[in-house]
Amino acid sequence: FTTKTVKRVGGSGTESFESLNTGAELGLFSLNAIAKGENKIFFRTYDGIYSMTSSGYPVKITIDIDPLFHGELIDEQPSLVAVDDSYSASERLEYFDSKLRFSYTGTDGVRYELIRDFETDRWEQTDIGAISYLRLDDVGQIYAARGDGYVYIIDDGLTDEGTNIDIAWQTKFFDQGMPD
Question: Which residues contact residue 114 at a Cβ distance below 8 angstroms, ignoring those fewer than 6 apart?
Answer without folding.
Answer: 65, 68, 80, 101, 102, 104, 123, 124, 125
